[in-house]
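Closing statement on the uridine-5'-diphosphate-xylopyranose sub-project.
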Amino acid sequence: MRRTKMRRTDPGGITSNQILGIFGTGYAGLVTSVCFAELGHTVTAIDKDHDVVARLSDGTPTIHEPGLQELLTGNLESGRLRFTTKAEDAVVGSDIVFLCVGTPPRADGRADLCQVEEVARTIAPLLDGYKLIVEKSTVPARTAYWVDWTIRRLAGPNREFDVASNPEFLREGTAVQDFLKPDRIVIGADTERARSRLLDLYRKGFHCPIVATSVTTAELIKQTANAFLATKISFINMVSDLCEELGVDVATVARGVGLDPRIGSHFLNAGLGFGGSCLPKDLNALITVAEDNGVDVAMLREVERINTARVERLLAKVDRALWVLPQKVIGVLGVAFKQDTDDIRGAPSLGIIPRLHSAGAIVRVYDPAAAQNIQKLYPPNDRLAYVASAVEAARGADALVILTDWDEFRSLDLGGIRSLMRTPIIVDGRNLFEPARMRAAGFEYHSLGRGEATLRTVPRRVPV
Ligand code: UDX
């Protein structure tokens, strides 16, 4: 059904609202859809999953994201937002079509671009006049070339379109705020027509720097940003391991280092490392793009290795703390890859829970939002239960293992928790607490990089 162009022109003569089609209603696509509608644009979002489209059309979010519900409800009611399974509804009559479909990692580390290619094939026959097709999903550099090649091959020679890149920098848990108040907007376009269309779209409602560059540069900016964030995290985790040997607290080192504005304090929290659907995938994808182009990125492979090793390091601490695991009751606090999300993709819990279970422990898991997602992978059984609170996870436990930095874990009633546990042992993968405070509260507290080596009787190597 063709959408009427409810164009509104600002006093400056700039057309302020556009007719947008959004392919994909996952974390990026759904937030992009509701936020563009909130800014006054008319948005049609398409998903192949009929159930997802039905739930979203009823105003029920399909992801846990603060602030999303209100925007979804309000913009459905305003008529600026709708969901469909029909591609023509999102393409015909639209000024700009965004690709927000998944680009999950393949076994070899490369991004799986099947969904991107499928959307390109779907759009091609539906082109009705000039169309701007924009990659918002995170894709390897030069993907836009292949999207253009696919559409040109299938749409016939006289179709007018451009393929541009406008990567999202959304963090799960703060995605709505990140969209509406971004640090920067990156626009990748190789024609003046595409560039001006995207600049027009972002001219209203945003007050941040705009980087307008080529398509390939924009694609590379996104993957480089995520790979650098991953590098920063693995760097502090490498320092964290040294801190344990030297008996110093990595949190203090991070604070002292992060006060240098050239370094900055963000992403210097040592712990279980980075998970999620983006950092691991984008780090891997940048590695493969670089290696495919003959560039040595051994440094990034080391970032990946350090991150993968965090799970083993935490499990070794659980082993040392409990000595014997079979029949030990272990409360696991947190399964999401980080707080304020129900997303378990790339979460350390995916490796840790099955290892504790196969070692013979009785595992009782609590997460405020993500438990239902991990239950689909690891259903309850005689030694694996999902409980409704941290208190229930602590009841009768020989140890608590913290895997996600939920704020509610930081404010636990430690006295109450200690009284419920069989032995007051906490292994904290997210360094939520101060070691001295935990010792004063009567816990045997183990975390990552907090100078535990000082508990060792003699230094590992005495300088000669
Ligand atoms: C990330 C990027 O931040 C975002 O810009 C991009 O668009 C998508 O990928 P996200 O994956 O949602 O966002 O989460 P983020 O907040 O970046 O955290 C990623 C992982 O790193 C989490 O597992 C988190 O626990 C971990 N992390 C983060 C650390 O281990 N230490 C830190 O200091 C910060």
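Residues 168-172, 226, 229, 233, 267-269, 271, 273-276, 278-279, 337-338 surround uridine-5'-diphosphate-xylopyranose (CB under 6 Å). With this model delivered, the sub-project is considered complete and its resources will be redirected to Aim 3.
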